[in-house]
Amino acid sequence: MCTTCGCGTGEVTIDGAVAHQGHEHDHVHADGTTHSHDHAHVAEHAHEHGEEHSHSPRYAPAHAHAPGLGAKRMVQIEQDILAKNNAYAAQNRQSLAERGIFALNLVSSPGSGKTTLLCKTIAMLDGQTVAVIEGDQQTSQDAERIRATGAPAIQINTGKGCHLDAHMVGHAMEKLSLTENSLLMIENVGNLVCPAAFDLGEAHKVAILSVTEGEDKPIKYPDMFRVASLMLLNKIDLLPHLDFDVDAVIGFARRVNPQIRVIRVSATSGEGMGEWLDFLRDGLANAGAAKQETVASLKRRIAQLEAQLQRPLP
Amino acid sequence: MHEMSLAEGVLQLIEDASRRQSFARVSTVWLEIGQLAGVEVEAMRFCFDAVTRGSMAEGAQLEVIATPGSGWCMQCSATVALSEVFGACPRCGTHQVQVTGGTEMRVKELEVG
């Protein structure tokens, strides 16, 4: 449970269906090692499935404990606490790279204009395949808005959860049947705190801040702006009506993250969208090129092996 | 930060290790928490106690090793000590500092048996 917002466990749904049932996929342990499962999880199964769950009396050590064997010893762990989520994220990243898919994790406060921006982006990228994973505590409103543009969308409802994690996103990716060389946008739960810590397997985190939110947000929520590669300053069409200091917000963002790129946009007027679309197209080109290079190097390797065997591989 | 989900993560690492290394009780757990990791140590202790109740790590002593924060200062072209993530360089005062260390959250080792 998150002490910040009390989010709990076991209530996650993906497009309405409960996320954790018996199914076939690779299981990741807390230390990052993986193995595959092809059966439903039953109570006496030794591996815990899923990220957060109660450690109930059903857990029992599988071996007998000999009395008197009380000698203490040290066990080296040297494991990152978020290793499990990072392992799922690495699987997602690998799966996306193999297909040349450019994936972005969109993070912001609620109401910054993420969904409107996505709808506008999809419309302007006419012809480019875009898929969207939506994250909210409840409702499928956002996924429906995206589907209305013609792009496929999946809704993850986290229940009490305050952020998406790599495990949920991995499941959603499976359900989406993503195509090669496409764009995947993951719209995280509206929250400027929690999603910062959770890698989903994306190429970049994009922080969306609107001009109605206050220039000091980057220094008030530094974790989020530190992990973002790009800040989209949205709703710039409203600047004439506000006392918002654009230079100040950029200065604060650069203080927290000197490398952060800033693009000013308005999803409603279309201003600045050209630069944002160029960013997307560059990302897609890089993802495609990386995939081609992997395919080419695999082909070279196969050719080498065939030459060694002096006959074609079956 | 998510001290409760971090504490659950620690317990999972302990349970996974117990299956691999065949131990049934843990007496001490050493964590390495970076100064810049954004983890509230007292909240971590509270959550660790709560989460380990009824588990094989119940009653385990929690030792937290605070690893120092560091950053690369672009002006000084040197690694400097950092006590806050968006802090200024202690030598020249610029905020153009890239964090290089002190953000880790790890389970280092356990005393078991």
Quick take:
The complex is a heterodimer of chains A (314) and B (113). Helices cover 33% and strands 19% of the residues of chain A.
Draw up the topology in text.
The complex is a heterodimer of chains A (314) and B (113).
Chain A: E1 13-14, E2 17-18, E3 25-28, E4 34-37, E5 73-80, H1 83-98, E6 102-108, H2 114-124, E7 130-136, H3 141-147, E8 153-157, H4 166-176, E9 183-187, E10 204-210, H5 217-220, H6 222-227, E11 230-234, H7 246-256, E12 261-264, H8 273-309
Parallel strand pairs in A: 6-9, 6-10, 7-8, 7-9, 10-11, 11-12
Antiparallel strand pairs in A: 1-2, 1-8, 3-4
Helix pairs in contact in A: 1-4
Chain B: H1 3-21, E1 26-34, H2 41-52, E2 61-67, E3 69-73, E4 78-82, E5 97-101, E6 105-112
Parallel strand pairs in B: 1-2
Antiparallel strand pairs in B: 1-6, 3-4, 3-5
Report on this structure.
The complex is a heterodimer of chains A (314) and B (113). Chain A is α/β, with parallel strands linked by helices and 314 residues long. Chain A is built from eight helices and twelve strands. Chain A has helices spanning 83-98, 114-124, 141-147, 166-176, 217-220, 222-227, 246-256, 273-309, and strands spanning 13-14, 17-18, 25-28, 34-37, 73-80, 102-108, 130-136, 153-157, 183-187, 204-210, 230-234, 261-264. In chain A, the strands form two sheets. A nine-stranded mixed beta sheet of chain A has the order 2-1-8-7-9-6-10-11-12, sandwiched between helices. In chain A, strands 3-4 form a two-stranded antiparallel sheet. In chain A, a hairpin with a 5-residue loop joins strand 3 (25-28) and strand 4. The termini of chain A are far apart. Mean pLDDT of chain A is 82; it is low at 1-9, 21-25 and 37-69. Chain B is of the alpha+beta class and 113 residues long. Chain B is built from two helices and six strands; from the N terminus they run αβαβββββ. Chain B has helices spanning 3-21, 41-52; strands at residues 26-34, 61-67, 69-73, 78-82, 97-101, 105-112. In chain B, the strands form two sheets. Chain B has a three-stranded mixed beta sheet, with helices on one face. A three-stranded antiparallel beta sheet of chain B has the order 4-3-5, with no helix packed on it. In chain B, helix 1 (3-21) packs across helix 2 (41-52). The longest helix of chain B has 19 residues, at 3-21. The model of chain B has no long low-confidence stretch (mean pLDDT 90). Chains A and B meet through strand 5 and helix 6 of A and helix 1, helix 2, strand 5 and strand 6 of B. Strand 5 (73-80) of chain A pairs antiparallel with strand 6 of chain B, so a sheet runs across the interface.
